[in-house]
Design goal:
It holds the Pfam family PYRIN. With 81 residues, the chain is mostly helical. It is built from 6 helices and no strands. Helices cover 70% and strands 0% of the residues.
């Protein structure tokens, strides 16, 4: 499935919560509001891969999904990568 597939499957409310958590979480690297504002799910997937040095993008996405209560999606991503 990959990062984009999981982001595509998120309901709008959960996607917005995911973006909020990316901006306000304690994980590094930090993501600024201007980097996610009005961005598509594809743009966010690209941002995660570029900012989290590729291999770090999946764990960062899984952690963020778990923080917003999307545990099934986090597990799905973990199993697919």
């Amino acid at each position: 499935t990959g990062i984009l597939g999981v982001l595509d499957d998120l309901e709008k409310n959960n996607f917005n919560r995911f973006l909020f958590r990316l901006q306000n979480g304690s994980e590094e690297p930090r993501v600024r509001a201007t980097e996610v504002e009005d961005k598509s799910r594809e743009d966010i997937a690209k941002l995660l891969v570029s900012r989290c040095t590729g291999a770090g993008a999946v764990p960062r996405t899984i952690t963020t999904l778990r923080h917003i209560g999307c545990n099934e999606e986090a597990q799905e991503l973990g199993e697919s990568c």
